[in-house]
Design brief:
7 helices, alpha+beta, 14% strand, 8-stranded mixed sheet, binds zinc ion, L-fuculose-1-phosphate Aldolase
Amino acid sequence: MKKRELTVLADELGFGTRLLFQELGDPWGHIAVRLPKESGRDGFMLKHVRVTPPPGDPNAIMMFDYDGKVIEGDRRIPWELPLYTAIFKSRPDVQSVIHTHPLIATALSMAGKTVFAITHQSAPFEHGVPIYGGDMVNTEELGEGLAETLGKRPAALLKGHGAVVVGSSIAHAVQSTLYLEQAAQQQIWAATLGTPQVLDQHLIDFHKKLPPGDGGLALWYTKKHYDAEARGARTRSSRPRKSSKQPKKK
Ligand SMILES: [Zn+2]
């Protein structure tokens, strides 16, 4: 594979994990993305959301095959690796898998409730994402059970534990993770005032027909743009300024 393609994926993993940490406030979890076929490697790249204490490399990325064998990388192997291998094996349509522990969506699962399509942004969750048990998904059997519960859907909750979200790209999966948490929050707010309703079916169908690119990834690209802008501004402001004072004459 061209080095550039790997760099692009690594950059997206870096931005994606930073965004998830900033928005969800939880350092636990990972983003995984399939290695492209041209790489000649059959497997996926994975980045931890959390960073290792110095001198660990905060940008470290690992590569695994679909049986969970390390192809490259020396960070600790995630306990919940079977979650990724099982979903990648059962969902050929999926390019990226994310496991996080979003506060509000997880709170809903504790009460036996789930996230459904309450807004246009949450339309893909339709009549409710499925809920799996709260175990640490650290065996092949648990991974397969989760993949079965997920089925063809975009997300599943792990009771009292977290969420799993899949997408056609890193951007798509990250954006859906953020919308899952946003919908959970809106659902609870709405429930304090009345009974939130699932969107009308024609609106759910309308959103299903939209391609995941273009306007469909507006949240990801807008965050990326302003993040780059803010980082650029910080870099500029941290440069030493030229003094306008004239040196004193002796
Ligand atoms: Zn977990």
